[in-house]
Amino acid sequence: DIVIALVLAASLYPLVHALHTKLRLPLLLSTFIVFLISLVPFLFIGFTLVPNLSSQLPQLLTSIDAGISQLPIIGHVSGNFSIVQYVGSHSSDILASSGNIIMIAFSIISILVLTFYFVYDYERLFALFLSIFPYKEKAKLRGFLEEVAKVMGLYIRGNLIISCITFFVIFIGLLVLKIPFALPLALFAGVLDLLPLVGSTLGSIPALVVAFSLSPALGFSVLVLHLIYQQIENTIICPAIYNKALNLYPALGFLAVLVGANLFGIVGAFLALPVAASIPVIVNYLENYSERHQHPAA
């Protein structure tokens, strides 16, 4: 929770700092404004989309089941497997795990509270951390940490923006193509797009299954929609938002995601790219550190 809160604080603090310095708003008020604005998309999902999703979910699962059974290869592989029956048979397990749900809710609240205080006390905590290091190293260390925080923050903000763009583009595209359950399918694509490299592909699968169950023409239309958007996202949207801050070789990025997912699950996969992008900054600091201490100034 602390690591997630620190990463979120690094992504929000530049916005708070801009309000505090440029508009001369009090630091507490600037923190409240940025914090509330960042929560708006989640509140929108919670109060408007979730009720619609809950009413459409049973029909959507039934439609996906029917679509899977109609696909020649996947239908044979899946056999008699039914998503609806699986969810129904495990609903008791979900209810029985109410303790886990409470712990998840407590963890989310803890992350939000920690993030708020980390943002509000960012400079003081930064200074407190630097105070344990030698005076001659503080300036270099501060620059290093600021650069790492910049990469982390840019990635978190950019990833959320790209995910929102994905949701709106796919939602409009599915509405134009008259695909049923456009809202939950687009929301699924937007949320999965948060995962680097593989998220956009995984997020397109339910929409493709539903579309192909209606007709091959609609299926290929949805496939083209996702392929075109992925190309636009990879070649235009991502470079424009990240501005080369996450300029990684694809193989290195994929390896970082695999390692992060294996070690820390979904959170590790989500943070893998900014961590990998920070490696050159870390290496550069360590090399300069060695040089500074091998050749001390006269």
List the defining traits of the structure above.
single chain; mainly alpha; 298 residues; 12 helices
Distance from N terminus to C terminus (CA atoms, Å) equals 45 Å
Element order, helices and strands?
Answer: HHHHHHHHHHHH
Helices, by number, come to: 12
The main pleated sheet reads as: none
Strand content: under 5%
Number of strands: 0
Question: Please, could you describe this protein's structure?
Answer:
- 87% of the residues lie in helices and 0% in strands.
- The chain is mostly helical.
- The protein is globular and about 70 Å long.
- The two termini are 45 Å apart.
Provide a short characterization of the protein structure.
By secondary structure, this protein is an all-alpha fold. It has helices at residues 2-22, 27-70, 72-78, 83-89, 91-96, 98-120, 122-130, 135-176, 182-192, 199-214, 216-242, 250-294.
